[in-house]
Amino acid sequence: MPKFEAEDTTRLSLENYIVFESDIASGGQAIEISKTNTTEPGFIRLTWTEADGPAGNYNFNIAHFDEADGRSTLTLRVNNIPISRYIFNKNPAEQGNPPIDIPSSSNYIGLTGSIFDGLSNPNPVFENVTLAPGDQIEISAVADSLGNQTDELARIDVIEITPAPLADPVINVPELTIIPTNGTLAETVPKSGGITISRTGDISQSLEVTYTVSGTASPSDYKPILTGTVTIPEGQQSVDLKLTPIADGLVEGEETVIITLENSPNYQVGQTPSATFTITDNDQSTITESVTIFCGNQETVATGAWLMDGLDLAQAVTIPSSTEPADSPWQMQGA
User: Fold this and answer.
1) How far is the C-alpha of 143 from the C-alpha of 42, rounded, in Å?
2) Cα–Cα distance between 175 and 266 in angstroms, integer?
């Protein structure tokens, strides 16, 4: 990539800039705004060619002297359109009062590497500048005294223009949603229920989705077996995951199956990461018992069918009258 010595006018056109000698500068020379005309800006102009580089984005590294006696300003224009601005504002502390108005190793900023006073190198001073062959590049510079007796003369040594690093590509991963299509399943009429897992974005490739299974139901309460993975096929936006309850003859009450999507680098989980199935029970057990009921100082024996629904034992019984108050405690034995 091209590197231009600022004093080399074979490619660069200079206006209100003069060349000065410097042991610090690359090639022993650099340029500065003319001391006899500090009220006018200096200009560096260049035409970008195919030999310099193809159309694209470029960074400008500029080796220069940043003195403590001013805040010179550079403005970059491409095809007369202002693009960016940089100010010589590092201003290292120098000995002398007023500050020494000479370029030195203590105020030289190279194209790369560390600089004075432990400060970071400001290069590239212009970043991600779009250029194409034929573009007219102009860097204008303004001298500045920062209120001191002398001017900082926007002294420039080398201009290097390099391709801007490519930004990391933005990877748009799909977002998943999970929606139950029938969230309540009954053992009385075994019927499949399901959830739909949908994705956004590109569907040109299949997508494997992982999930966890929780809840109060066990794998023997439904079919098929949930493996923890399901694949959205190539060319499809979604996939259905179906469950069918199994009538097992056990008294269990309502049970749940909760499917929760797991995170993955290949997709992101939406705001609702899980779906719940509820399996209702159709089983009741019948127990014939002789139950003694105590109420106060009397007792009675009740026999018959006692229904147990889940863990609750219940039968309508009549408690005989008692000499005890109506709110006396009563007990059941034998159940």
Assistant:
1) 8
2) 9
Could you tell me the CA-to-CA distances from 271 to 177, 240, 274, 275 in Å, in that order?
A: 8, 19, 9, 12
Q: What is the pTM of this model?
A: 0.53
Tens of pLDDT, residues 182-220 = 656 555 555 567 788 999 988 999 999 999 999 888 888
Identify residue 265 by its one-letter amino acid code: P
Lowest mean pLDDT among 118-122, 238-242, 272-276: 118-122
CATH of the domain at 266: 2.60.40.2030
How would DSSP label each residue in 74-132?
EEEEETTEEEEEEE-------STTTTP-S--GGGEE-SSS--GGGPPP---SEEEEEE-
Q: Where are the beta strands (DSSP E) in 143-183?
A: 156-163, 175-180
For residue 138, list its beta bridge partners.
45, 77
Boundaries of domain holding 73: 3-163
